[in-house]
């Protein structure tokens, strides 16, 4: 049986904090200490990690290097997943240059765009391919993860093409609802929506001050 979606969503957070602790020279940490920096309860952390077969050592806690490797294996970050980014505007360029991808087990295998002025240019070491050649690019790179940084109107047609080519995991920044077949996972990042949520809390704080 696989891990629950909520547990899976917390594993990258655990891994990020463990990386920071390792960089700081920390070798072991208690469940209470790790839970505190992550922002969960110690019981929740112990439960999550027990699903991986990691229970720590009484009186010592968790060995950080070992736990990093264990979570990394569970998340598949040691595989160097090939990723294709579709849309090489300002957002696509920023994503292509994000150093966090490589450190977390992802490799930008291809950049794709329909703009003749962009096609053939090199962005962060990767040559931009023509959107017309998308299927060939996916076949060549064996990418199973696609990142969409396209305008909303173009997103669905692009998704249809990558799914038909065998891509089963999609991260989209396009502010639109995408239809995909069963078995294809879509994760949506809506920056405008996240800012609206922050604005809601800012407004609540302002109202509290007025009261």
From TrEMBL:
Binding site for NAD(+): 87-92
Keyword vocabulary terms for this entry: Cytoplasm, DNA-binding, NAD, Repressor, Transcription, Transcription regulation
GO process terms (BP): negative regulation of DNA-templated transcription; response to redox state
Keyword Repressor included in the entry's annotation: yes
Domain CoA-binding: 76-177
Similarity section: Belongs to the transcriptional regulatory Rex family.
Species annotation: Microlunatus phosphovorus (strain ATCC 700054 / DSM 10555 / JCM 9379 / NBRC 101784 / NCIMB 13414 / VKM Ac-1990 / NM-1)
InterPro entries in UniProt: CoA-bd, NAD(P)-bd_dom_sf, Rex_actinobacterial-type, Rex_DNA-bd_C_dom, Tscrpt_rep_Rex, WH-like_DNA-bd_sf, WH_DNA-bd_sf
RNA-binding recorded as keyword: no
Protein name from the UniProt record: Redox-sensing transcriptional repressor Rex
DNA-binding positions: 13-52
Gene (UniProt): rex
Assembly and oligomerization: Homodimer.
Record SMART domains: CoA_binding
Function: Modulates transcription in response to changes in cellular NADH/NAD(+) redox state.
Record's subcellular location: Cytoplasm
Domain of life assignment: Bacteria
Single annotated GO MF: DNA binding
UniProt GO cellular component terms: cytoplasm
């Amino acid at each position: 049986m696989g891990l629950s979606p909520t547990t899976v969503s917390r594993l990258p957070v655990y891994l990020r904090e463990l990386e920071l602790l390792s960089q700081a020279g920390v070798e072991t940490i208690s469940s209470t200490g790790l839970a505190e920096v992550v922002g969960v309860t110690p019981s929740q952390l112990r439960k999550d990690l027990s699903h991986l077969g990691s229970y720590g050592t009484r009186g010592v806690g968790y060995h950080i290097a070992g736990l990093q490797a264990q979570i990394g294996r569970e998340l598949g970050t040691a595989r160097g997943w090939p990723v294709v980014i579709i849309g090489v505007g300002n957002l696509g360029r920023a994503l292509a240059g994000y150093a966090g991808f490589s450190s977390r087990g992802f490799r930008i295998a291809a950049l794709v765009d329909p703009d003749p002025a962009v096609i053939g240019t090199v962005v962060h070491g990767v040559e931009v391919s023509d959107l017309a050649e998308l299927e060939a690019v996916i076949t060549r790179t064996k990418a199973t993860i696609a990142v969409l940084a396209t305008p909303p109107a173009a997103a669905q047609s692009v998704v249809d093409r990558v799914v038909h080519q065998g891509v089963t995991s999609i991260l989209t920044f396009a502010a639109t609802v995408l239809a995909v077949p069963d078995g294809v996972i879509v994760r949506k990042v809506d920056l405008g929506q996240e800012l609206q949520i922050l604005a809601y809390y800012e407004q609540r704080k302002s109202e509290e001050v007025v009261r």
